[in-house]
Amino acid sequence: MIETVxxxxxxxxxxxxxxxxxxxxxxxxxxxxxxxxxxxxGEIRPxxxxxxxxxxxxxxxxxxxxxxxTAISELxxxxxxxxxxxxxxxxxxxxxxxxxxxxxxxxxxxxIVSAYGVYIDRTLDDAWRQKREPEFxxxxxxxxxxxxxGTEFRAGLLGLMGTSAxxxxxxxxxxRTACHVAAEAGxxxxxxxxxxxxxxxEVAELMMSEGLPADKILFCxxxxxxxxxxxxxxxxxxxxxxxxxxxxxxxxxxxxDATDLARLEFLLDLVHERPRAxxxxxxxxxxxxxxxRYGGMGYGHVPRRIAPALARMGLESTRIDDILVHRPAxxxxxxxxxR
Length: 339
Description:
Largest sheet: 8 strands, parallel
Structural class: alpha/beta
Radius of gyration: 18 Å
Mean pLDDT: 96
CATH architecture: Alpha-Beta Barrel
CATH superfamily: Metal-dependent hydrolases
Low-confidence stretches: none
Strand content: 15-25%
Number of domains: 1
Order of helices and strands: EEEEHEHEHEHHEHEHEHEEEHEHH
Number of strands: 14
Shape: globular
CATH class: Alpha Beta
Helix content: 25-40%
CATH topology: TIM Barrel
Number of helices: 11
Distance between the termini: 9 Å
């Protein structure tokens, strides 16, 4: 069974799954001036979208998803495009609003699986940064077995767990604890890697050392580093890798997202070289600029545009279904005796 914010459902009910989304949250802690050293002022609006694409974190309002009505309408569009389920992965440090998710799920007409976790060190206040293993264990165990704090539902997995280029003591404590708690519960753990640090193998080994099976590890946004050897080495551990489509933004003079074409071609090459690779896909929406109403691709981008493109580029329908339906369901499924 799969734990959703409206209660458990059989894995067959999920449909096509986006494995890493953000519906309501506040990531303004990650705001920084543009490449010319200035801020973009005010609210998101059409005339500044070019500036925003050029320096994506320079508008604080872009990093705030705070309107329930907007969330409902955007997810309803995704449901119309063929999304059956999203994993809401807004962890502490990104301003999660877990208690609002059931109402959004009902109104939008799709399943929401809530993750529960702790993001990268620099987004956390001192209270979170100073928590010890027993405190993390109590929080994670309660989220998986009883309820996410402030709600009446259980988490479907733990995440999005943050790791920085140099994993901090707080990140290490939280990640290790999440892994052994999830292993006992038969649950998965999703992880954020710092792209340029290329620590995927080391993080996978850390997670497995705590007893978590490789097929319950989800490395989100693996497309941040489209390096053949690096990604194939991670895949060879048995861990699941996620491709996030739809964002093609700049963050600094020498740092930008890959294009969707590059992601598509890399994914196809990976499937050719590693036919058994465990892969999922998502839109990884975390900002206003990714929403359809602001000219973004929206939560429905993968089934609406990416899946048909993969089919036109020669990927078999059974493999597409494995990426969008069966692999996410296996990742999220928890044995009855461990719930």
